Amino acid sequence: MDKKEFGKKLKNIRIRNKMSQQAMADSLGYTSRSTINKIEEGINEMSHDKILRLMEIYGLSRPDLGLEPLCGDKLSGLRKDAKYPNPEIEEICYIKNCVSNPNIVVGDYSYYDDKKGADLFEKHVTHHYDFIGDKLIIGKFCQIGAGVEFIMNGANHFMNGLTTYPFNIFSRDLQKFTPSLDKMPIKGDTVIGNDVWIGQNVTILPGVHIGDGAVIGANSVVGSDIPPYTIAVGNPCRVIKKRFDDKTIEKLLNLKWWDYPIEAIEQNIDNLFNGNLDELELSLKK
Ligand SMILES: CC(C)(COP(=O)(O)OP(=O)(O)OC[C@H]1O[C@@H](n2cnc3c(N)ncnc32)[C@H](O)[C@@H]1OP(=O)(O)O)[C@@H](O)C(=O)NCCC(=O)NCCS
């Protein structure tokens, strides 16, 4: 390994990910930022284990680091721990690796695509307050377009009075009028299934459940539940068609291809694309 060349590449990766040396040290399990500094300066070498971790987290291949490809590194083509799954496409982030709120729970490989800042996904989850405790739960392999808004329960005003105006939040003196949570229109968690495609600028209202494999058309406003494997569009968002016949939908829902090991899924991309459900099932269950 050419230590100086490697160091330069590491520094570029760190800068591209907008990280300090300490943040990168933390992500790779080094205690001190000076280790990263020494590697960047070409003084120290990075161990094989750490290189694997670096590739996994930052979605890199060995050639990205100026290293010869090696057999047996056992990395899948998809790197679930990467922030940017394809380092050349900064507008796509794996959501799980960009959110810090524990009430946003996201499965592996679900991504947000936004050239204004894919890593800012959390800003698209609004009125999400700890004291309410509602969760946004998103499954695996979801595809979420730019400008989506998940409006959470804290957005809903008290509606049992003569006004919906929230006087209590504007002054300490008026806090005594804060309605108790059981009087608020709280609709529960927002739950998005697996392999759900949400088009650009979709708004999802509190408490909505969207089933596995559903497609939500661009600019839709989703106020009620959307069944699995349907296509739904508009405001209010309504189902316009099913993606498959009922028998196929049932089989897909039972199979849950997204729960299989990533290597098995990658071996079946042909079957997933070409609709060979029987072959997909046979191959996954082998
Ligand atoms: C929903 C979508 C996937 C199309 O699905 P489709 O099965 O091919 O649907 P069609 O184009 O045949 O449209 C069916 C009907 O729904 C309407 N429709 C489609 N998308 C719509 C939308 N987003 N809002 C309102 N109506 C829509 C069509 O006008 C058509 O209406 P009609 O039957 O009265 O003519 C597509 O329109 C869409 O919204 N894609 C999202 C793209 C995006 O935002 N990607 C982000 C990158 S991740």
Quaternary state reads single chain
Whole-number count of domains: 2
Helix vs. strand class: alpha/beta
User: Count the helices. How many?
Assistant: 8
Q: How many strands, what sense, and barrel or not for the largest sheet?
A: 7 strands, mixed
Mean pLDDT over the residues: 93
Runs in which pLDDT lies below 50 for 5 or more consecutive residues are none
CATH class of the largest domain equals Mainly Beta
The Rg value, from CA coordinates, equals 23 Å
Helix and strand element order? HHHHEEEEEEEEEEEEEEEHHHH
CATH superfamily of the largest domain: Hexapeptide repeat proteins
Please estimate the helix content. 25-40%
Number of strands: 15
What is the CATH topology assignment of the largest domain? UDP N-Acetylglucosamine Acyltransferase, domain 1
Strand fraction: 5-15%
Task: Based on the model shown, name its key terms.
286 residues, 15 strands, 25% helix, UDP N-Acetylglucosamine Acyltransferase, domain 1, binds coenzyme A, alpha/beta, 2 domains
Overview of this protein structure:
By secondary structure, the protein is of the alpha/beta class. The protein folds into two domains: 3-65, Orthogonal Bundle (434 Repressor (Amino-terminal Domain)), CATH 1.10.260; 92-243, 3 Solenoid (UDP N-Acetylglucosamine Acyltransferase, domain 1). Helices cover 25% and strands 14% of the residues. It is built from eight helices and 15 strands. The chain has helices spanning 3-16, 21-28, 33-40, 48-58, 246-255, 262-267, 269-274, 277-285; strands spanning 92-94, 104-106, 111-113, 125-126, 136-138, 143-144, 149-151, 190-192, 197-198, 203-204, 209-210, 215-216, 221-222, 230-233, 238-242. The chain has a seven-stranded mixed β-sheet, with no helix packed on it. Strands 2-5-8-11 form a four-stranded parallel β-sheet, with no helix packed on it. Strand 14 and strand 15 form a beta hairpin. Helix 2 crosses helix 3. The longest helix is centred in the first third of the chain and has 14 residues, at 3-16. The radius of gyration is 23 Å and the shape is flat. The mean pLDDT is 93. Bound molecules: coenzyme A. The site of coenzyme A (COA) has 14 residues, from strand 14.
